[in-house]
Design brief:
The protein has 699 residues and is of the alpha/beta class. 48% of the residues lie in helices and 12% in strands. The protein has 4 domains: 253 residues, 2-enoyl-CoA Hydratase, Chain A, domain 1; 185 residues, 3-Layer(aba) Sandwich (Rossmann fold), CATH 3.40.50.720; 89 residues, N-(1-d-carboxylethyl)-l-norvaline Dehydrogenase, domain 2; 93 residues, N-(1-d-carboxylethyl)-l-norvaline Dehydrogenase, domain 2. Helix 22 crosses helix 23 and helix 26 crosses helix 27.
Length: 699
């Protein structure tokens, strides 16, 4: 531990420069709060000091609260006490922002009498992503300065706002082109002797109808999350009454969220997303150097992978089977980057650089010198084996060969290459340039440094790589296939797609399974059922009859105008044709249909997820429950405020989940046997949070 103080100050003539130095991100620890209070009060008391500037050492301004202090007994001074005292002072205090001013860091800046930044700075209030709200005046000061609609947007989205946009909102007073600290000191001097602008004393015009409309949209997107609703209440309180009254509403709501199951779950996710990158089986393993990449295929998935690689600064060679396909791909690439330029995400020079990193060809030989090649062609084993047979001969020794398969056997693909030690799976999720998850699959003979390379490339692309073993569907699709069978079974037993989708969406899922099926295309599942029909276990309940009957009518989902639903002008409507099919199939199977509650639908789905995940952990496909949670949260629309299926199971109680899966088994039969790992956990009074890496192996 360094003895260096977290906060220091230096006199710059008649301005006191207060410096926060708490690496790596200057989080607001108790030492930072106490130090800021001490030095600001010193400046206020010193007759020779006319103004104060708060700046930070390192790569960023204060980037938020110290999350490690959450749940611990509070140690003074509180951030509210510090900020209210600073704002009430009689000398101008100016925040000099570089890097990011996030959460409590931005609340510090908003309590200053002015804010200046460099042009690259960004500000924001991301507490909602932890199931919380800004708890030190952020829900009050931001709308008082920038208006209620801006305050609502920033607090409920958690987005980072670039300096130029913050300047437009009035949240930053000046962008400094030269030396930031010198510019801040000069700006502070310009405020001496003038009336101080206190954020808490400002007020903007309030359009209640517009606010209520925006709030309704926020609640619709929240899908059951508590924090957005609490934030709406706080921001509205800022529009009438005193700052003190609004602050009281904020404090009450913050404390309620702090102890809520939702916030606990979201804080678990925050740490799990960092822990998942520390792969126990790859500890100490160095990745192979990767300076260039190849991608085979330029369809939706291949294009997304290519865009992500190039956006990370990687030169990419794309191989297609025709010039026509390459021409279409170039249009897709350019339109994506042109949209980014139009939205201000990148400038034209950056786009030109990205286009310059791209090579398009029909020649496999162009991949010979690449360090990693990612195949992203149609999901057909024969085609993939043919491609990897070529790659094994053409691509240089030591290069990593990755397949973007979503469920096919990586071992078989590796054997086809003739160099299975270089072959891994890298299952991206569509659209691959947006979705964060990538499943990195360890084939039976994949070298550890090849896997480490997959992880390193994924991280460079801004992804969350989760390493796992090889099995049908890997982690995500294996669990999906299991709970979809439960859903299809309940449709046969008495539910309807619209009821099931409504139940899952009310539970917090991004979309219900039947709406998702229509969006993805029902022909995908139909082809897979046909391809593997010869492997079907006749002792297991077949739940594909309804989907097959729908597909037999040429109803493949949105792309054909009908699937489980009918689509008129893009709107989803219930179709009597599907209702008739469902009831006919139930009758043919001798099933007497009965009403099924939304609670049964969601509890059976969740229990089947957890049961299959426990089997995956027992097989050591992944070694940690958090691996499962990260996959389901980032690739399959599981509600983040529930923390993932394993975290949710801990909240409910493993014993209750086990009871539910036993009920599922009575109806579903073979394939839904309660996991022995769950039985062991209940017998030993264990939660998933208690499970160490590999502890459930063989259980």
């Amino acid at each position: 531990m360094s003895d260096k103080p977290a906060v220091s100050s230096v006199q710059k003539g008649d301005v006191l420069l207060v410096l926060v130095d708490n690496p790596p991100v200057n989080a607001i620890s108790q030492a930072v709060r106490a130090g800021l209070k001490e030095h600001v009060e010193k400046g206020m008391a010193d007759a020779a000091t006319k103004a104060i500037v708060i700046a930070c050492e390192g790569r960023t301004f204060v980037a938020g609260a110290d999350i490690r202090e959450f749940g611990k007994p509070p140690a003074g001074p509180s951030l509210q006490e510090l900020l209210n005292g600073m704002e009430a002072g009689n000398k101008p205090v100016v925040a000099a922002i570089h890097g990011t001013a996030l959460g409590g860091g931005f609340e510090i800046a908003m309590a200053c009498h002015a804010r200046v930044s460099d042009k690259a700075a960004r500000v924001g209030l991301p507490e909602v992503k932890l199931g919380l709200l800004p708890g030190a005046g952020g829900t009050q000061r931001v709308p008082r300065v920038a208006g209620a609609l801006v305050g609502l947007d920033l607090c409920t989205s958690g987005r980072m706002v670039p300096a130029a946009e913050a300047l437009k909102f009035g949240l930053i007073d000046k962008i400094v082109d030269g030396d930031l600290r010198e510019g801040a000191i000069e700006y502070a001097r310009s405020l001496v002797g003038k009336p101080l602008k206190r954020s808490s004393e400002q007020q903007q015009p309030f359009d209640e109808a517009a606010f209520d409309k925006a709030a309704a949209e926020v609640l619709k997107k929240a899908r059951g999350a508590m924090a957005p609703a609490k934030i709406i209440e706080c921001v509205k309180a800022s529009t009438h009454g005193t700052f003190k009254e609004g602050e009281a509403v904020e404090r009450k709501n913050f404390m309620e969220l702090l102890v809520s199951d939702q916030s606990k779950a979201m804080r678990y996710v925050f740490f799990a997303e960092r822990e998942v990158l520390k792969v126990p089986s790859l500890e100490g393993v160095e990745a192979r150097p990767v300076m260039s990449a190849g991608v085979i295929g330029s369809g939706t998935m291949g294009a997304g992978i290519t865009i992500s690689l190039i956006n990370s600064g990687m030169p990419v060679t794309v191989v297609e089977n025709s010039q026509e396909a390459l021409d279409k791909a170039m249009v897709r690439f350019k339109s994506t980057w042109e949209r980014d330029v139009k939205l201000g995400r990148i400038d034209q020079a950056t786009m030109d650089k990205r286009v310059g990193l791209l090579t398009l060809t029909t020649q496999f030989e162009a991949l010979a010198d690449k360090d990693i090649v990612i195949e992203a062609v149609f999901e057909e084993m024969a085609l993939k084996k043919e491609i990897f047979g070529k790659l094994g001969k053409i691509v240089k020794a030591g290069a990593v060969l990755a397949s973007n398969t979503s469920y096919l056997d990586i071992d078989a693909i590796g054997e086809a290459s003739g160099r299975p030690q270089d072959v891994i799976g890298m299952h991206f999720f569509s659209p691959a340039n947006i979705m964060r998850l990538v499943e990195v699959i360890d084939g039976g003979r994949s070298a550890k440094d090849a896997l480490a390379t997959g992880v390193a490339v994924g991280k460079r692309m801004g992804k969350l790589p989760v390493v796992m073993g090889n099995c049908d569907g890997f982690v995500g699709n294996r669990i999906l296939a299991t709970w979809r069978k439960v859903a299809d079974m309940m449709i046969e037993e008495g539910a309807y797609p619209q009821d099931f989708d409504a139940a899952m969406e009310a539970w917090g899922m991004a979309m219900g399974p039947y709406a998702v099926g229509d969006l993805a295309g029902l022909d995908i599942g139909m082809r897979r059922r046909k391809e593997f029909a010869h492997l079907r276990d006749n002792e297991k309940r077949d739940t594909g009859a309804i989907a097959d009957a729908i597909c037999a009518l040429g109803r493949y989902g949105q792309k054909t105008g009908s699937g489980y639903y009918k689509y008129v002008d893009g709107k989803r409507t219930v179709d009597p044709v599907v209702t008739e099919i469902i009831e006919r199939v139930s009758k043919e199977k001798g099933i007497t249909r009965k009403a099924i509650s939304a609670e049964q639908m969601t509890s059976w789905v969740h229990a089947s997820m957890v049961n299959e995940a426990a089997k995956i952990l027992s097989e050591n496909i992944v070694s940690r429950p958090l691996d499962v949670d990260i996959v389901k949260l980032n690739g399959y629309g599981f509600p983040v405020w529930r923390g993932g299926p394993m975290q949710e199971a801990d909240r409910i109680g493993i014993d209750k989940v086990l009871e539910t899966i036993k009920e599922v088994y009575k109806t579903a039969g073979k394939g839904f046997e309660p996991a022995s790992a769950l039985e062991w956990m209940v017998a030993n009074n264990k939660k998933f949070a208690d499970i160490k890496a590999g502890e459930l192996k063989g259980k």
